[in-house]
Amino acid sequence: MRILIYSPQFSPQVGGVEVVTEQLARAWVALGATVVVLCHTPDPQGQQYPFAVLRNPHPWRWLRAVQWCDLVVYSCISLKGLWPLLLTGKPWAAIHHTWYRRPDGSLGWPERLKLAVMPWARLHIGVSGAIAAHLPVPARVIENPYADDVFYQISPPGERSQTLIFVGRLVSDKGVDLLITALANLGQRGLHPDLTIIGAGPELPHLQNQVITAGLQSQVQFLGELPPQAVAAQLNQHQILIIPSRWQEPFGIVALEGMACGCVVIGSAGGGLKDAIGPGGMTFPNGDVIQLEEAIATLLTQPHTRTQYHQAAQSHLQAHRRQAIAHQYLQAFQEHR
């Protein structure tokens, strides 16, 4: 099968959609498909892939790529990338990684146009049940894979020297300030776990000041951005991964990465994050610092509960391995060619 993936942003740019697109492309090639990725992201280093990457192609080259393929797959609907379909009538599918609405929940004209063109697609795939339910058209749910060649368990969960870890962008939506508040509250209960924060973003100075004000300098360390292999190494040193997002996460690959490295996960319940966590951890209402504190306290004081979550996560992880998810996609594509 010849697949053309249209992903406006792609590696070396780093983001959830970019990572998943590359993982799926690699897996589809390994399963026998011929894949081309078309994007608008430059790559000065000229990284090599087991598939072709067309970066900012001339419109004529773009059109030829669409004519060549059996199916065009859009990593989210992009209005900029729809014009070749009008000229060729080529069948297309859309993978929906996020919400088609503004942060305040309203719809602007770009969102309305994207929703209006959805009936033209042969197939819609939502990366979580929450995303699929948000769409105005029927959609199959195929959850995201994780990089099982990078994120895997090295050290036994019961032999780890560090406790809590957060991995993600340091922006207000991610709720790291809630986690620091919960950490301070736990101290009043005689619980003093350490916390490692991995990531960068505009909230970093505020979070550092919050740690100082709360007197938590001895418990909290900021490591900045790290490459995937280093993130995996850190996850393998910690017991509990916290994902305290305020906003409704569309999915949450970091939950799978944490569980694969042996962490139990605590995450906010809204959106698709609960689907990513599955049986491998606990959830709490978005923005509820009291319930977050209670969840952390439960896992700190009940080691057997951590063991139960860790054991329950194994089948969930198996279902989200890259090849397993890629196979589901190819099966769906064959059904809708």
Any overview of this molecule?
The chain has a seven-stranded parallel sheet, with helices on both faces. By secondary structure, it is an alpha/beta fold. Helix 1 packs across helix 13 and helix 11 packs across helix 12. It is built from 13 helices and 13 strands. It starts with a strand and ends with a helix. The chain has two domains: 159 residues, Glycogen Phosphorylase B (Rossmann fold), CATH 3.40.50; 163 residues, 3-Layer(aba) Sandwich (Rossmann fold).
Structural class: alpha/beta
The shape, in one word, is elongated
Q: In percent terms, what proportion of residues is strand?
A: 15-25%
What string gives the helices and strands in order? EHEEHEHEHEHEEHEHEHEHEHEHHH
**Can you tell me the CATH topology of the largest domain?**
Rossmann fold
Corresponding CATH architecture of the largest domain: 3-Layer(aba) Sandwich
Terminal residue distance: 10 Å
Average of the residue pLDDT scores = 96
CATH homologous superfamily placement of the largest domain: Glycogen Phosphorylase B
Estimated helix fraction: 25-40%
Which radius of gyration do the C-alpha atoms yield?
Answer: 21 Å
Number of strand segments: 13
CATH class category name of the largest domain: Alpha Beta
Q: DSSP helix count? A: 13
Main sheet specs: 7 strands, parallel
Q: What is the number of domains?
A: 2
Oligomer state equals single chain
List the strand order in the largest sheet. 3-2-1-4-5-6-7
In the predicted model, the low-confidence regions spanning at least 5 consecutive residues are none
